[in-house]
Amino acid sequence: MSVQNAEIARLFARLADLLEIEQQNPFRVRAYRNAARVIGGLSHPVADRVATGEDLTDLPGIGEDLADRIIGIVKTGRFPLLEEVERRTPGTLSDLMKVPGLGPARVRTLYRELGITGPEDLERALRTGAVRELSGFGEKTEAALRSALARTRAASERTLLAEAETLARPLSEWLGGCEGVLEVAVAGSFRRRRETVGDLDILVTCRRGASVMDCFTAWEDVGEVISRGRTRSTVMLRSGTQVDLRVVPQISYGAALQYFTGSRAHNIHVRRIAGQRKLKINEYGVFRGRRRVAGRNEEEVYAALDLPWIPPELREDAGEIEAAARGALPRLIEPSDLRGDLHCHTRATDGQQSIGEMARAAADRGHEYLAITDHSRRVSMAHGLDADALLAEIDEIDRIAETLPDMRLLKGIELDILEDGSLDLPDRVLDRLDLTVCAVHYGLGLSRRRQTERILRAMDNPRCTILAHPRGRLIGEREPCELDMERIMRGARERGCILEVNAQPRRLDLSDSDCRMACELDVALAINTDAHSAAQLDLLRFGVDQARRGWVEPGRVINTLPLGELLARLRR
DNA sequence: GCCGTTTTCGGCCCGACTGTTTTCAGTCG
């Protein structure tokens, strides 16, 4: 099996931690950390580039040295430099760095003075009181580390974006009602619409002298106040999610929003450009010397660098700043571009509502069309439909469709792709449908080559309209299946097959980087909810978020098409 | 270790909060 990007990223990040603990050149440390981020965020496997002999130094932050190291890892599966460093500095120290409150300096002290190499050692040393005796540590640090370790164990990890919304919305409203508060914005990865959110960054402007921090820490869901200052406080919610609140003057709102939205890599790049122009950017504004030249809103901040405003979803330092400078930012898709939904379920299989209820709910949302796509027979857990049951459903869809003046109900099925790549129902039945969404539900553990060929074979059948949730992942629960996504995409393009961006918050499959690849390879997409209830028809916007992060423009997405053009496009 | 309409050498983002320090280091975002 070839080495995955995530593995290379992990090795580089680990090396960066260890070199930092060893107090080596901090810029060398940054170079490895930056390379980890760049490789981890690539849409194509870097192993493929190595195989075809592509020049890796084209990648940002990858020079001769790092390119050679990547090639070595891909070809041998080993990283001798890391092995060498780990002989003098235990690799597990990198895990210790993940404990909140521990950075390279404290980890180094803990290791050198007490021989602590991991969380278990640390816990023991905290119990015996050895830690508080160290210079630079004290009783408060000891208590903080004890609670940090407990929190790490309880590790709720990252929160799904949709769940983070349910925490952020009521808190934002609460803050908006606090005395003297003028503006409230949720920034950070939440605003960049990442599929998961680590903690919530909330920005507030207020009238002078307002006691926002008192109001913030009085929020009913606050479990623990971690730090509390005049302009910045951190709390832990009872759910385990951390929230940082920053208060800035109104005149700094744009600069602060830009700054706290990140990503860090984007900001570093932006500030580098500012430095070249003798400007300084911080969360209070853009400054030339001591004079503020921008900061009231984000447009001003970017304009000070001769850049157009950059949508938050793109701010990952993945080429968006260069594109902005060229005037070549994409016109990103928006929820209002979508005219319908091509994947949903009803009570006939594992959905919660009838066909009629789903149809009316979609019509209420202004959809021009909705495809009913219940499961096929192989997915027995969901009471998948066999040929006869599907024919009966087709008749019922036709009946209900006649009662809907303003919306077209499309006949479809979520068709299982069997292990040999054949489709789960006979062609003669499928020919009665407007579309199929085809998906793998079993045999997710096949090898990369077999899984790829299985899906390509399924797409050989012209009745395969849309490949649904192609990676088969469940965020935080199930890893994506092994797949040569580039081959799948090239295959889809040749065959006129469409790839789905499944909007279920725990799927979001295709991922953001897959979407970016689809743009590069000119593959058509559909953004679908896979709704199992009427309420879930509202999830489309999460699919849009993911597509926007992948630079997707409306023209790439077939369910932006009016009905007539859509129907033509569905016929391969 | 990377990178260059200031540079192939000499730079590399910047401020807030905490605790232990008695003037600042460490961590975080």
Determine the N-to-C terminus distance.
34 Å
CATH top level of the largest domain is Alpha Beta
**How would you sum up the global shape?**
globular
Average pLDDT, to the nearest integer?
Answer: 92
- Named at the architecture level, the CATH assignment of the largest domain is Alpha-Beta Barrel
How many structural units, i.e. domains? 4
Strand content: 5-15%
Low-confidence blocks of residues: none
- What is the overall number of helices? 24
**Helical amount among residues, as a percent range?**
40-55%
Rounded to an integer in angstroms, the radius of gyration calculated over CA atoms is 26 Å
Estimated structural class: alpha/beta
The H-level CATH homologous superfamily of the largest domain, spelled out, is: Metal-dependent hydrolases
**Sheet bearing the most strands, described?**
7 strands, parallel
Give the number of DSSP strands.
Answer: 17
CATH level-3 fold name of the largest domain: TIM Barrel
Strand sequence of the main sheet, in spatial order? 11-12-13-14-15-16-17
Textual characterization of the structure:
- This protein has 572 residues and is an alpha/beta fold.
- It has 4 domains: 5-156, DNA polymerase, domain 1, CATH 1.10.150.110; 159-247, Beta Polymerase, domain 2 (2-Layer Sandwich); 252-326, Beta Polymerase, domain 3 (2-Layer Sandwich), CATH 3.30.210; 335-570, TIM Barrel, CATH 3.20.20.140.
- The protein is 42% helix and 14% strand.
- It contains 24 helices and 17 strands.
- It has a 7-stranded parallel sheet. A 5-stranded mixed sheet has the order 2-4-7-6-5, sandwiched between helices. Strands 8-9-10 form a 3-stranded antiparallel sheet.
- Strand 14, helix 20 (448-460) and strand 15 (466-467) form a beta-alpha-beta unit.
- Helix 1 packs antiparallel against helix 2 (26-40), helix 1 (5-21) runs parallel beside helix 5 and helix 22 crosses helix 23.
- The longest helix is centred in the first third of the chain and has 17 residues, at 5-21.
- It is globular, with a radius of gyration of 26 Å.
- 42% of the residues are buried.
- The structure holds one DNA strand of 29 nucleotides.
